C-alpha cells in the first residue's frame, strides 16, 4: 500500500466532517458528502456558485450576522494566508424542500488557506462543525436554565468576535500610519543622476509593518558620481524606525560633502554615539564613479555588498569592513577600498535579514545570495529584486527586517 497512489478526491469525499473548498472569490470548487448532507444541498446546487448565493442570511432575522462574519473571516485568510478560527455562529439555513422556511442552526467554522507554488492563496478550506443538535438536546434535558446559559454563551461569543473585529480594524489603522511614516522617511525617488535602482524593504513578521532598516541614494554631482547606502538599526517597530530616519538623514547629508564613503561613515559614527537607540547600528556606503568605472566602499559592521560582473563573477566587497557605527572609542579613520566594474555589472546592497537564519552560518546565506544574483544577472533590476526576496526570504515570513537595493551599473 505504501507504493500505491492515493486517491485524494476519494479521501476528500470520505472525510467525516463538513468540508468545502472555495476559490479566493468565494465560489464553491467542491464540497464533500458530509457537507452536502448536513446542509441539505445537492452537488449541482453548490459547485460553481458563490457561497453567499447558496447560503444567504435569514431575511427574517434583522440581527443576523453570520454571513458578514464568515465573509470577513474568509477574506482575512485570502489576505494573510493564515488560518482563521471563528467563534460560535448562528447561521440559519433555508430548508431546500420548503422555500421561505428557515431552520435555526449553530456552527463552529474554521477557514484555512491552500498555498500555491507562487506563495499566493489558491483555495480556501472551509471546515464546519454543526452543533445545533447538541444545543437542542441540552435544551430539552435541562429546560430554561440551560437555554439561558446557552443564550449567554452565544451572546458572549458574539461580543468577543465584535471586539476582535474592532482590534483588527485598529491594528490595520496603526499599520497604515506606520507605513506612511516609514515611506516618508525613505527616499521616494528611484532615479539618481540618470541611473535607476530597484529598492525593496520588508519588515519582520512580528513588526508593525515598519522596520529599522534603510536605504539611501544620493547624487554627488552631475550624475557621474552617486552614493548608494543601506543601514540597519537593532530592533523593530516605531522606535527603530525613528532612529533609522535620523541616521539615514545624517548619512545622506554626509555623503553629499564627504570625500569618500569612509569619511561619511566616520561622521555618522560620531552622531550615533549621541543618538539613543543607535547602539550596534550598522551601515555600508558605496560611491560609484560612472565616468571612471570605479566603485569605492566602506562598511561599518554591515554585510558586504555584492558586485556581479558581466561574465557572471560574483565579488563580495569585503575589503573595507569595520566595527558598527557607535563602536569606535576614538575617531580613527575607517577603512575604504576600491574596485573596478564594466558597464552592465550589478551592484547589490542589503541588510542581514536577507541572508541570516537562526542556527545557520551566515556564509550559507551569502552563498545563496551569490547563486541567485549570479543566475539571474541578466534580469531587469526590479524583477531581480523580487526574485531575490522570493528565493531567500522564508515563505512563512522573515524574523528580521530586510532592505535591498539593486542597481545596474
List descriptors:
409 residues; alpha+beta; six-stranded antiparallel sheet; 11 helices; 20 strands; 37% helix; 26% strand
Low-confidence parts: none
Overall pLDDT score: 81
Shape: elongated
Computed over alpha carbons, the radius of gyration is: 29 Å
The DSSP helix count reads 11
Main sheet makeup: 6 strands, antiparallel
Q: Which structural class fits the helix and strand makeup?
A: alpha+beta
How many E-type strands?
Answer: 20
Alpha carbon gap, first and last residue: 58 Å
Percentage of helical residues?
A: 25-40%
Q: What multimeric state do the chains show?
A: single chain
| Range of strand content | 25-35%
Walk me through what this model shows.
With 409 residues, this protein is an alpha+beta fold. The chain is built from 11 helices and 20 strands. The strands form 4 sheets. Strands 1, 2, 3, 4, 7 and 8 form a 6-stranded antiparallel sheet that branches. A 6-stranded antiparallel sheet has the order 9-10-20-19-15-16. Strands 11, 12, 13, 14, 17 and 18 form a 6-stranded mixed sheet that branches. Strand 15 (306-308) and strand 16 form a beta hairpin. The longest helix has 42 residues, at 144-185. The radius of gyration is 29 Å and the shape is elongated. The protein starts with 7 loop residues before the first helix and ends with a strand.
Write a short abstract of this structure.
The chain has 409 residues and is of the alpha+beta class. Helices cover 37% and strands 26% of the residues. It has helices at 8-14, 33-39, 43-46, 51-54, 66-80, 132-142, 144-185, 237-257, 261-273, 362-375, 381-392, and strands at residues 18-22, 28-31, 84-85, 89-90, 93-94, 102-103, 106-115, 121-130, 191-192, 195-202, 211-219, 225-236, 282-289, 294-300, 306-308, 314-316, 321-322, 337-340, 346-350, 402-408.
